[in-house]
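Priority: medium. Attachment 1 of 2:
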């Protein structure tokens, strides 16, 4: 029996014009936080890994797609933010909050052998090591793989994750090589 296909869409800008329609054709689409490039990277959104940290709330004010959160059926969140999240009603409904799936971060930290991982890697580790992998073939797109070490370890935006770029790059490369995930190239 063939499993349906799930795709995790990161926040790297897509180059391929047909990528939006390809992403929207997946059975289940998971996006990350502010859902950057919603539109050019498709509009279908079945799930979002949502990390309402200080930067998300105070710098980005929920992001340009914060109104889209109210339409999402499946939210994923780290336990820390789930327990500390007090202004959730500003972005999501009671029903959404009650149905948040708290991810198991240890799957990603053990796999990448690094603690301060990006949101994309945290939710990917959870998807790969939980009931999601039993139900779906897992794909990724709009995640920088080849330049991840440089990006995370040198860009000021990723300061919290400095030191983890190589670990994340090796983790992604290994998961692709082992065929645990299928990469849909964005360029």
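Attachment 2 of 2:
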């Amino acid at each position: 029996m063939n499993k349906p296909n799930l795709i995790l869409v990161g926040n790297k800008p897509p180059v391929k014009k047909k990528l939006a329609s390809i992403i929207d054709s997946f059975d289940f689409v998971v996006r990350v936080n502010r859902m950057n490039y919603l539109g050019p990277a498709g509009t279908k959104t079945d799930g979002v890994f949502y990390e309402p940290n200080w930067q998300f709330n105070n710098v980005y004010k929920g992001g340009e797609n914060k109104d889209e959160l109210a339409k999402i059926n499946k939210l994923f969140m780290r336990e820390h933010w789930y327990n500390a999240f007090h202004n959730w009603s500003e972005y999501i409904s009671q029903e959404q909050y009650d149905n948040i799936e708290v991810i198991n971060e240890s799957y990603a930290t053990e796999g990448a052998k690094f603690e301060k991982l990006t949101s994309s890697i945290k939710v990917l580790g959870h998807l790969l090591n939980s009931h999601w992998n039993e139900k779906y073939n897992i794909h990724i797109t709009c995640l920088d793989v080849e330049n991840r070490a440089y990006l995370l370890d040198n860009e000021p935006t990723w300061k919290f994750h400095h030191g983890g770029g190589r670990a994340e790059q090796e983790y992604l490369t290994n998961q692709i090589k082992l065929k645990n995930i299928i990469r849909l190239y964005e360029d």
